[in-house]
Amino acid sequence: MIRYLVEKDRPVRDVPVPVIVMLVLTLALQLIWHSQQEPIVAQAEDLPRPMSARAYVMSSFGEPIAAAKVLNLWLQAFDNQPGISIPLHSLDYDVVADWLDTILELDPRGHYPMLVAARVYGSVSNPEKQRQMMDYIFFKFNEDPNRYWRWLAHAVVTAKHELKDMPLALKYAHALAEKATGDNVPYWARDMKIIVLEDMGNVEAAKILVGGLIASGEITDPYELNFLQNKIRELEEKLSRSRQDVDN
Q1: Contacting residues for 229 by C-beta, under 8 A, at least 6 apart
Q2: Mean pLDDT value across residues 109-113
Q3: Which CA distances in Å does 37 have to 24, 26, 210?
């Protein structure tokens, strides 16, 4: 037995001819089979609808925050599939919104879904999809203005500078001014409406708005009051120059 184990491998010529023929035929058949197969082409998968938030809580053993974090990572990585990269603007944004809603339901205090809505899905080179994400942010803002004000402020900037839609920017800025009234909301966010009106050429309307804010006595923050006083001087100078141009 020991001699058999240490014995050198037998030469090929000692292998029976029928065995060699069988191996050659097997190899030939395998090569022919592979040559007949269609080449494997990577195909993009559609983004599926999410399950209920309750289902994710149960699957994570009662840890909704952990489930939300995992779903955040999964959703953001969905555009990179094996062998293919999907442009973000080709995703179904109605389904994307459902995922964002589900993640927010799992982690109501989290802001990550709003962040990706504003700066990832809302930054694609597709105006229609951008508007869809900005409207999603506007919808969520109306649910909790003092929590989501910063994302609507981002939507104002996107509407103004990327979409070039000043009426839409004014709509968002007006909502900020009217609804985001918490102490945590900075004055620059509440006063974005003034800037948008000025950029739209409605200098007189912006001046009236600023004057009304100052006269109301509701502005107690010295920095905001100083900002408004400086702004009204700038607006008055603009009005004066425009009137001079008309007279000339």
Answers
A1: 214
A2: 90
A3: 21, 17, 73
Residue with the larger pLDDT of the pair 159 and 33: 159
| Structural tokens at position 233 | 């001087």
Q: For residue 204, what are its two tokens?
A: 């007189």
Secondary structure element (H or E) that encloses residue 81, with its range:
strand 80-81
Question: Measured in whole angstroms, how far is the alpha carbon of residue 138 from the centre of its chain?
Answer: 14
Confidence of residue 135 (pLDDT cuts 50, 70, 90): very high
List the structure tokens of 28: 């030939």
Angstrom distances, CA of residue 89 to CA of 96, 103, 128, 139: 11, 20, 9, 20
pLDDT digits (tens, 9 = 90+) for 219-248: 777 777 787 788 778 877 877 776 666 555
**pLDDT tens for residues 62-106?**
888 888 888 888 888 776 544 334 567 778 899 999 999 999 999
User: What Rg, from alpha-carbon coordinates, does the chain have?
Assistant: 32
How many helices and strands, by DSSP H and E, does the chain display? 13, 2
pTM above 0.85, yes or no: no
Helices (H), 60-109: 64-77, 93-106
Interhelix angle 145-157/112-119, nearest 10 degrees: 10
What SS3 class is residue 80?
strand
**Cα→Cα distances 177→77, 117, 163, 186, 219, Å:** 36, 22, 21, 11, 13
- For residue 107, report the phi and psi dihedrals to the nearest 5 degrees: -135, 80
Q: Is 117 left (phi over 0), alpha (psi -120 to 50) or beta?
A: alpha
Return the residue matching tokens 């309750």. 54
